[in-house]
Amino acid sequence: MSRIAYVNGQYLPHSHASVHIEDRGYQFADGVYEVCEVLDGHLVDEKLHMARLSRSLEELQIPHPMSDRALGVVLREVVLRNKVCNGSVYLQVTRGVAPRNHFFPPDGTAPSIVVTARNASVAKSSALAEQGVAVISLPDNRWDRVDIKSVSLLPNVLAKQAAREQGAYEAWFVDDEGYVTEGSSTNAWIVTKDGTIVTRPANEGILKGITRTIVLELAEREGMAFEERSFTIQEAQQAREAFITAATTLVMPVVSIDDMTVANGTPGHIATTLRSLFHTQAEIADT
Ligand code: PDD
Asked: Binning pLDDT at 50, 70 and 90, where does residue 286 land?
């Protein structure tokens, strides 16, 4: 099946879809993005993703490319045309095309928008979750506006590659005070010995993950103890459980941190429960 991408108003064959060489996303990483889960062909937590997209655009003074309603139509169309059942839809908006110059382009420059979608193997992801994954830690060398979901992801790319080269799945960034901020493309969590779920507050040093928001709501709904506070790598290594969250991985148990086994080295009960209940709390779009 040939894949289709949406680019600036057109649905194009994926292999021929392209943006201009002077797109500011290409030249300056001057853009933002969202990744939304697709479950049985339905968008998951669309409203929260759209709200975060709006916030990212506004923080960077990039004009909205279209209304949320119109964007919803495009997202659904791309999912449909690519026959995505379970997977994700990717949406990127940049400040548009203009002769290369660090200043913002003239008012009225249209933002560029690209939407793609792809299937992902549920079986593979479930198998990984049954086994649990390893993480490594690295100093957080990112800028201080990681709350904006910007496509400027070089430190994240280097961290993820470092993880792979060390046989791990994810890299956790650690701030100057020795506290874990988040993963290169996921939020970081632990469960303490007394069973309290812990994740860093979203007001500094992390992206406020949509999956994170839903997991906190789920923990509350299920009467699980949770706390938003920072933790160190040492605390995580001694924890009862650890896990990561993102729209693409959902809740993924962590069984090793910097080569130290977490608990008995198998996925924990709380992480596994949160994973299995996740879609009972997430908002699944009707169409
Ligand atoms: N990443 N932190 C970072 C740095 C991320 O890049 C992501 C998501 C998250 C989790 O956010 P959410 O729960 O809304 O997916 C946290 C996406 C999936 C990506 O870059 O592919």
From this structure: confident
